[in-house]
Structure formats: structure tokens, C-alpha cells
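User: Quick sanity check before I run a bigger batch. Here is a single chain. Can you write out its predicted 3D structure?
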Amino acid sequence: STTHWLSDSWRVWLDQTEHAWWRRGMLSALRNDHRTSGAGREETLASAIETLAGTLEEKYGRPPLGWLGDDNVRTSVSSADLSHVRQACRVLATHKVLSPFVTDETKLLQNLRERNGEEQMARKILQTGVASALWMSKDPALTASRMVRAMAYDHGSLGWAWEETKKNTDADATALEVRTRKCLYHAIFSAENVPHLATTTCCSVDGVPWFPNQGEKFHINVTRLKALSQGDDACVLRVER
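Assistant: Done. Predicted structure follows.
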């Protein structure tokens, strides 16, 4: 979109690449579980997830977007916004399709987290990149704050409402505090009566998980003080020296 740092063409490529990795990981997870494998069942389930996700995307990705719960009538959806809608719908579809087979909700939620960035190797690669940036920074707290702020801006505009409630001052150890009152993922999942699924998307992979031991090695502390997915009134991320 014209208001986002990533062009539409690059976003399409990135979304397609990410989905290919998702499908590969999902098929592997299904094959390794006796409840979802055998006689081609894993391929059938993966295709069912994709089909349902497409149907849900039609529901949540087109105006007027009444699920937002506000009075704003949307006439268009940017590619940045649609990427988040698409990911939320895929998580929702995965949960619906696999629930009859993986009846342990805790294990199913962990499966969803691993398909959305919490997989061990992916997390190690991300944390290594973040650690390298912090090692080279003269002010790790400032660098961490910029990372968290960039994450907030990357969310797009659809369904999000966030603000910086605290900024760096000489008298305050807090370098940054971001408060999110509206979350696209939480709104879509709430519309389907499964708000806790937000713990498998942005809540599980964004912000705090980027920093090994919450940034302790770099004399900073990155924490999530509140989360909409846990019933709080907002999501609050804080970076402290």
C-alpha cells in the first residue's frame, strides 16, 4: 500500500513465501501425530484448513467490516491490513479443522504458536538477529524501543488502536511503553468466540519473545504487562533500562 513501507508486490511475494513455509511445517506436524496422519489424511486436513481460511477471509477481509465494532465504514482494505486478516483467518481455520482430532486444547494452541513464529529454530534465528543489533548499539534500550515501535506501525490501520503512553526521560527508567487498545487478531477471534487464540499469534511472537531473557544480557527489560487475549483492557509492552 502507499502508506506502508512494503510495496504491494513485495507483500504478495512475502505472503506466498510465508504460506509455503506454513504449509510445509503444518504437514510435518500432522504427519508426526497419529491422530492426524495416515492414508493421506494430513494432506486432506491441510487443504481443508486452506479452504476454510479462504472462506473466512471473504467474510473478514471485505468492507463494510462490521466485526470491527466501530462506526467507521470501510470502503477498502490495504494489502498490509489484508495480510493480517489472512493470517488471523488461517489460525482460526486451523483451530476449527483440527479441534475434533487434537482434543487437548493446550497442545493444539502450542501447535498453532509453532506455525506462527514460535517454532524453536525460527525463534533462535530471530533472537540472534535482534541480539546482534543490540550488541552493536550504543543504547540498547533505544534500539529495542525502535524495534517495538516499528512492530506497532507494521500492524497497519485496520482494527488497531495503539499509542505510546510513556517515552524516555532522564528521570524514568522506562524507555518506551506501547498500549494497544484494539487488536485486529483479538477482534476477529472474539467475533468467533475464541479470543484466546490471540495468544497464538501476536501475543506469542511479537515484542517480548524477540529478546532472549527479556533483554537482561543488554541491561534492559522488555515485558508485556497486559494482554487483551488474557482479558485485560489493553496490551501493554514496556522497554526499561
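The chain has a mean pLDDT of 87.

User: Great, the batch can go ahead then.
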